[in-house]
Design brief:
Layout: H1 7-13, E1 26-35, E2 39-46, E3 51-56, H2 61-70, E4 76-79, H3 83-92, E5 97-100
Parallel strand pairs: 1-4, 4-5
Antiparallel strand pairs: 1-2, 2-3
Length: 102
């Protein structure tokens, strides 16, 4: 089956993951581009299970902090050095251990 599809078409075929009530013990956080240079989102990953937990519509600290507040339980948060993520973790999950990439 030689079907051609662009990345926009493939993104449209993705189904939303089932979001758990609690955050995974080890939560991975990173940004990605819906449209490079225009629209960015945040992907949340259960690092131990290796699966996507949720996809947030933007990369703001308010959105991520709200998610952390609604889904407590993250003990370790692996993130990039974006200040928005740092602010959200300090605000909504102050007891979580932060691991930042370089």
């Amino acid at each position: 089956m030689r079907l051609t599809a662009g990345r926009t078409r493939l993104l449209g075929l993705l189904t939303a993951p089932t979001v758990p009530d609690r955050a995974p013990r080890v939560l991975g956080v990173d940004e990605f581009a819906f449209r490079k240079g225009c629209t960015y989102g945040t992907v949340l990953v259960d690092v131990e299970a290796g699966r996507v937990v949720d996809v947030l519509p933007d990369r703001t600290s308010e959105t991520f902090a709200a998610w952390l507040t609604e889904h407590p339980g993250a003990e370790i948060i692996c993130r990039d050095r974006a200040t928005a993520y740092t602010k959200a973790v300090r605000e909504a999950a102050p007891n979580a251990l932060e691991v930042a990439d370089r």
